[in-house]
Please model this.
Amino acid sequence: MARTLPDVLRIDWPAETPAPPAQTAQALERAADVLRRGGLVAIPTETVYGLAADALDEDAVAGIFRAKGRPASNPLIVHVSDAAMARELAGAWPAAAEAIVAALWPGPVTVVVPRGPRIPDIVTAGGPTVALRCPDQPLTRLLIATTGRPLAAPSANRSEAVSPTTAHHVLAGLGNRVDLILDGGPCGRGIESTVVDCTVDPPRILRPGPLGEDDLRAALGGPVAVSAADGGGGDEPARTPGARPRHYAPQTPLEMPDDPLARVTTLLAAGGRVGWLTTHTDDPRVRTLAASRDLVIVPMPAEAHDYARRLYATLHALDQRGLERIVVDPPPADGAWVAIRDRLARAAAAGASRD
Ligand code: TXA
Ligand code: MG
Model:
């Protein structure tokens, strides 16, 4: 582990330009060098930042679990530069995986497939399957191609905290637990990838994410199943352990009440300092409350993709404000809102359990 804070290597690569900026090769070579020595590099992806190590190096992967404080029972996603690398790591390649990968990679969907012999036990938590993902972030795909190794990478936050969507969030959350941060700017999607189990028929969404049921049905040309919202709990190992309710929570207790206006009014009357994520800033009653010095109103986008992109950065920022409570308007329960609602419900569950 590094003793000092990690270097942050910033690379501005606008989406429209085919070639990366001049300093890219040197930055990637430095990152690849850290990875070859078994170190940890924070990598940008289109969803959230990842905390990466060489997926084929057991000791390096052990470093990820230590840095995050992550239980060894929770398996990691392995990031690849393309579909060919994914097939090499799988023990079998289901037709469903091929269909999803052909239609949606690079992109924010992770396929769970039978694990091949090259994947160490520690990556899969001893399980028979491996989760594979090809991120829609050219810098990170170039890094994987530069190392020639797949990268195991969970989100680059301490276990159970809010995922990072900027290099600054990674630095604030992990500090010297990471050796180097590759800064590719803010993440475009803002919430973690959709995880799909391709070892069952029909394939099953284990974790909702930026690509929804409709996208998967279209890619598969057939049905897709969806796991119950509660991804397991108690002592029983869940099929997607990371989907347990306590994940994705800010430090400040968060609530998603049916009547946010009434709830905020009550909290303020009791003398609390409150943050409120709302899409109803035009409501005159909201405007009246906005005069309160104890209320921080955060206007949120009415469109789901914009909302998702903004959500974690908003929670990170509110966590710095010394508030007693964060109140969030319940978002719609359908379409592109499903994954957002899932993350907010988990954050609210964690808040309640801390009360
Ligand atoms: O967007 C993302 O997926 C981000 C970026 C960095 O790629 N990564 C991410 O990783 O969210 P993490 O570790 O925070 O979440 C991985 C999820 C967890 O819920 C984990 O339990 C599940 O994937 N998972 C990993 N391997 C699995 C497997 N073999 N079977 C079922 N679920 C698995
Ligand atoms: Mg995570």
Notes: The first strand starts at residue 7 and ends at 10. The pocket of magnesium ion (ligand 2) is lined by residues 154-155, 163, 242 (CB under 6 Å).
